[in-house]
Amino acid sequence: MNATHTASPARAPGPPGKLLVGNLLDASRRENRLAHFVHVWQTYGDIVRLDLGPLPFFLLTRPDHVHHVLVAHAANYPKGRGYNKLKLFLGDGIFTSEGDLWRRQRRLLQPLFTPQSVGRFESHMRRAIDGLLAEWESAAASGQELDINQEMMKLAMNVISLVMFGFEIGARAREAADAFSAMLRFVSERSVSAIDLPLAIPTAANRRAQAAMDRVNAFMAEIVAERRADPTEHDDLLALLLAVRDPDSGAAMSEEQLRAELLTNFFAGHETTAQALTWMWYLLSLHPGVRAQLEEELARVLGGRAPTLADLPNLTLTRAIIDETLRLYPPVWGYVRQALAADEIDGYHIPAGAMVMVSPFITHRLPTIWPNPEGFDPGRWMSEQGAGRPKHAYFPFGAGPRVCIGNNFALLEMRLMLATAAQRFHLDLQPGFRPVLESVASLRPAGGMPMTLTPRTP
Ligand code: HEM
User: Model confidence over 159-196: pLDDT tens digits?
Assistant: First the structure.
C-alpha cells in the first residue's frame, strides 16, 4: 500500500522481548511509560519495534512517519483495539467511534468548534476565570501555597461544564466530577495492562469503576431530563447537541449517542487543557525573563483590562508561550493506531494488526528539527526559525481526519487565562520542587505543582 515498498522490508530494531508478555511489563510500569519510550527511541532510533504482548508494537517518531499514519494512510490505521477500554466508558462518541458513525458525528459537531463558533463561549470562559482569580486573591493575601494542577483542573472543569450545561460542575456536583476523574484513571491505568479482566468480573477495582460509571451516567441523564423539562432558551453545548439535525435524514441524535457525546466532550474538553495550563505556569516560573516580556506585552496591548477576542491577534508572545508549552509538554504525549493491512514504513515491515504509536513528546524533541530541543524558547514561534520545519514536526492536537476538534476551544481558553491571570499574579514554584512526569493518561506532574501567588501591583 505504500509507493515506497522495497523487495523485502526489514524488521525494525528494538529490544529483545520476554516470552509471552514481551516488553509489556516494562512499558506499562506506572508513571514510567513515557520514560520507557524515550529510552527505546534514544537506544534504537527513529522507528522501534517492541513486543508488547501478542501484537507487534512500533514506536514511530519522525514527522514523515506521523504524516504516513495519521494523514496519508489514515484509512489503514484506525484507532483500533487500543481504544476498547475507553469505549466501555465513553460509548461510541466522536473520540472512540470509527467509520460512518464517526464521520456522521464529526460532520454534526464540527460547526460548533470553528474559531467563530467557539468565540461564543468566551463569556463562559471569562466567568470561570474570574471566579477562580477571585479565590486566588484570598490565597495570595494569606500567602497560602496552592497546587496549581488542581486549580487548573478546577478551572478547566468549570469552563467545560459552563460551556456544556450552563453551570459550574464543581459547585453543583463535586461527587460526579470526582467519579468522572476516577473513571478515567481506571481506563488509562488498564489500557496497557497485561491482564484484561472484563468489567463484569467483580474485582474491587472493577466494582469501583462500575460505581463511578453509574454515578456519571446518572448525572448526565439527570441533566438531560432537566433540560428537556425546561422551556427557557439556553446558549450552551447541550442546547446545540439537542438541536442538531442530520443534514441527510433530518434526525436528532439518539439518546445513546447524546450520552456518548456529552461524556466524550466533557472528558476530552478539560483534562488536557488543565495539564497544558499547569505546565505553562511551571515553565513561566522557571523563566522570569520570558515572564517579564509577557508582562510587557500585556501592559502594551491591554493596559490592565481583561482581554477580548479582538485583542488575541495582538498577543503574539502570549500565543507563542502556549505553543512552546505544548511542544515541551504535550498533554496527549503518545497515542496508538492499529494497522488493518500489512504496510511498510521507512523500509520496515509493519504486519497486519500491529499497533503503531506516535508521540508528540518525542517528535517535538528531535534534535535534527528543533535547535536546543529541551530549551523553553517561545521566540522560536515568532521568528523565521520555523520556515523550514517539516509539517508534522509539531502536532500537539494530532493530525489528519482525527485531529482534535477542540483545538480552537483550548487555545482560546488558554490565551484568555494566561492574559488575564498574568496581569494580576506572579506564580512561583515552591523553591526546590522538581515535578515528576506521570504519563498514565495525559502528561501530568505526579506530585501536583505547588506554587505561591503574589499579587502584582498595578
Ligand atoms: C490543550 C488541550 C488539548 C489537547 C492537547 C488535545 C489533544 C488532542 C489530540 C492529540 C487528539 C487526537 C487523538 C487521536 O488522534 O488519537 C484529540 C482529539 C479530540 N479532542 Fe482534543 N485536545 C485538547 C483540548 C480539547 C478540547 C477543549 C476539546 C473539546 C471541547 C477536545 C475535544 C476532542 C475531541 C472530541 C477529539 C476526537 C476528535 C475525533 O476523533 O474526531 N479537545 N485531542
Answer: 999 999 887 776 666 777 778 778 877 776 665 444 45
pTM above 0.90, yes or no: yes
Q: Which three cell numbers stand for residue 76?
A: 489503514
**Cα 117 to middle of ligand 1, angstroms:** 17
| Ligand 1 atom 16 nearest Cα | 335
- Nearest CA to 421 out of 117, 120, 139 is that of 139
Strand segments, DSSP code E, in 108-239 are 146-147
Highest average pLDDT, of 79-88, 141-150, 178-187, 280-289, comes from 280-289
Q: Name the residue type at position 55.
A: L
Residue 381, C-alpha cell as written in the block: 514561534
286's CB contacts (< 8 A; 6+ apart) are 376, 429
Residue whose C-alpha cell reads 520555523 in the numeric block: 386
Distance 234 CA to ligand 1 centre (A): 25
* DSSP-assigned letter for residue 379: G
**What is the pLDDT confidence band of residue 4, given thresholds at 50, 70 and 90?**
very low
C-alpha cell of residue 28: 506499562
| Residue closest to 13 by CA, chosen among 72, 59, 63, 52 | 59
247 C-alpha to ligand 1 centroid (Å)? 24
CA angle 167, 168, 172 (to 5 degrees): 90
Check: CATH 1.10.630.10 for 24-455?
yes
**What are the DSSP calls for 244-263, one per residue?**
---TTT-PPPPHHHHHHHHH
Helix or strand or coil: residue 119?
Answer: helix
Task: Give the number of the atom of ligand 1 that is nearest the alpha carbon of residue 264.
Answer: 35
Q: What is the domain partition of the chain in residue ranges?
A: 24-455
Task: Evaluate whether 134 touches 155 at the Cβ level (below 8 Å).
Answer: no
Rounded Cα–Cα distance for residues 67 and 73 (Å): 8
Lookup result for grid cell 456518548? 260
Residue nearest to atom 42 of ligand 1 (CA): 406
Residue 362 three-state SS: helix
Q: Which of 266, 295, 249 is nearest to 454 (CA)?
A: 295
**Atom number of ligand 1 nearest to Cα 335:** 16
